[in-house]
Design goal:
The chain has 398 residues and is of the alpha/beta class. It has 13 helices and 15 strands. A hairpin with a 2-residue loop joins strand 10 and strand 11. Residues 242-383 form the Terminase large subunit gp17-like C-terminal domain.
Length: 398
């Protein structure tokens, strides 16, 4: 579906469900980013079929009716004229002319989802639910109709363990929508006013950019990352590509980060990290990154099988001899000196790296999510460029 709707002027790619096979799609969005519109559009598309049963789940029944059903971006407002649904308040359900029905449920009453069954479900503002685990599990037990039941979740993110566990589940697809991308549909001056109040803060990162921002204990602060954005210099003294290899082909990502140094400042050039590649697939991606940026050094973490990593990179015709390093301390301890570089304003991000920055803000916090492979690769790269031989983390060259 995503490929087919790319030209639709009022939908961005992030607002369209993934085109491939999935069970759960999570759209993280800032305030006013159009995530509710995306959820409503997805369900209205499904409702063109006949006699399907859906679930609508919000923080409270009031939210389901006022936002998901009757809101300006809700199901009724954007439904096509020939299939515009009607709300039956007594039965708490929405009925389309096509024969489809959607029943409203509240996260305040998880047991209300025991018994009913559905072809699909749309869950809104997941992070604001009162009983997240019970509501989500009961909802999923009810998704048992049709050949491929699906769940779409739209929410402004918060640094809660439930969201991190959800995003770490196999088969979950995630997109992110920022408020700025939907500025044309917002009141004039809305975005500028909020940025004047919250620019560079965690509030901006979470509520406008749709990033998961950790609270107390986070090493990397949103304000430091916002300040770090800048341009690449015309010339660099040295370029390093760092690799955090995956433990398996289908689990964690392979972290691949390119960074350079000019004088006393480091420049993050690219995040080429990827998930789901075969061993030779990620090795070739590493070699491609080394060549694209004319790297002077290639660093690879050796904790997941050092000699295998070296052999794969040699097989992929790597122009550099990989320097294998072994982590002798925990991730948080290794990252602390790099976080200090950001506080000092000595690191520049030469592009937007939302996935990388989200992992950085989660590094060292107990969240139960995926391994921070991108952030690990960044720490290795900046350590080699700016800190090797002078401070932590300790490196053991193999």
């Amino acid at each position: 579906m995503k490929a087919a709707l790319q030209a639709t002027p009022w939908l961005s790619d992030e607002q369209v469900s993934p085109p491939d096979d999935w069970r759960t799609w999570v759209l993280l969005g800032g305030r006013g980013s159009g995530k509710t519109f995306a959820g409503g559009f997805w369900m209205n598309e499904l409702a063109k079929g006949g006699d399907l049963t859906f679930a609508l789940v919000g923080p409270a029944i009031h939210d389901v009716r006022e936002v998901m059903v009757e809101g300006p971006s809700g199901l009724k407002a954007q439904a096509p004229r020939d299939n515009r649904p009607r709300w039956e308040a007594g039965r708490r359900r929405l009925v389309w002319p096509s024969g489809c029905k959607a029943y409203a449920y509240s996260a305040e009453d998880p047991d209300g989802l025991r018994g009913p069954q559905f072809h699909a479900a749309w869950a809104d503002e997941f992070c604001a639910w009162r009983n997240i685990e019970a509501t989500l599990s009961n909802l999923r037990f009810g998704l048992r109709l049709g050949p491929r039941p699906r769940l779409t979740i739209t929410t402004t993110p918060r640094p809660i363990p439930e969201l991190r566990r959800l995003l770490a589940e196999p088969g979950v697809r995630r997109d992110r929508a920022s408020t700025a991308a939907n500025a044309a549909n917002l009141a004039p001056g809305f975005l500028e006013h909020l940025r004047s109040l919250y620019a560079g803060t965690r509030m901006e990162a979470q509520e406008l950019e749709g990033l998961i921002v950790e609270d107390d204990g986070a090493l990397f602060r949103a304000e430091d990352l916002a300040r770090a954005r800048g341009s690449r210099p015309a010339r660099l003294d040295r370029v390093v590509v760092a690799v955090d290899p995956p433990a398996s082909a289908h689990g964690d990502a392979c972290g691949i980060v390119a960074a350079g140094r000019r004088g006393g400042t480091a420049y993050v050039l690219a995040d080429r990290s990827a998930r789901g590649l075969s061993p030779m697939g990620w090795a070739r991606r590493v070699v491609e990154t080394v060549r694209d940026f004319g790297a002077d050094q290639l660093v690879a973490e050796a904790n997941q099988g050092g000699e295998m990593v070296r052999a794969l990179l040699v097989q992929a015709d790597c122009p550099l001899k990989p320097q294998l390093v072994h982590a002798t301390r925990g991730k948080r301890v290794r990252a602390e000196p790099v976080a200090a570089l950001y506080e000092q304003g000595r690191v520049v991000h030469c592009d937007a790296f939302p996935a990388l920055e989200e992992e950085m803000m989660a590094l060292g916090c107990d969240g139960g999510g995926r391994s921070p492979d991108r952030a690990d690769a960044l720490v290795w790269a900046l350590t080699q460029l700016m800190l090797a031989g002078r401070t932590q983390p300790r490196l053991r060259v193999l």
